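Hey L., structure's done. Input below.
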Amino acid sequence: MKLSKVLKLSAIALVVSFGVYSCKSKEKVATNSEVGQVLEDLPCEKDGRSDKNTFRSFSMATSSDLTLSKEKALLLAKQRLVTLIQSNTKSVTDRYVNEREMGSASEFEQKFENLTREVADETISNIVVACEKSSVLPDGKYRSFVAIEVDKEDLMNSMNNRISNDAKLQVDYDKKKFEEIYNQEMNKMAEEQGK
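Output:
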């Protein structure tokens, strides 16, 4: 009976701890809890928020080797950036196809999605590191934080260049209309990220 009471109290304490952990305070303070040190404000996190002109991502990684922690953080940030670019461009493509009447809409979408993947992968080579910080943890491991970015114009120019080399895509491509929808989606993404 006593054991079950202790377990219930422990469970309640754990739930309360997680509740406190999930509610961010306006103060940017690190506090100690049963699960370790809780970081209220992560280095480079703000530099990893996209706005209407730039795709950005943020990541962190831990390793016993400083260089490896930096490389892991950069790799994760790149993966997130590619996902963000593909997701945004997919939204643009869907809206573009819906707003235009095309005979081969599904073929256009498929070709355009493939082109987007290629451009996103290519664009990753043009990233700029906006922020990079590292720290040593009490156990001697390293934690690295990184924020990267790529300009939306670089991405748009790459897409326009690729489209101009594809005769089939060029037929259904209205550059002005596509860029208009693209800019609307960038503004929407910026609003969602609080900028």
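Residues 1-41 form one domain. Residues 66-99 form the longest helix (34 residues).

-- N.
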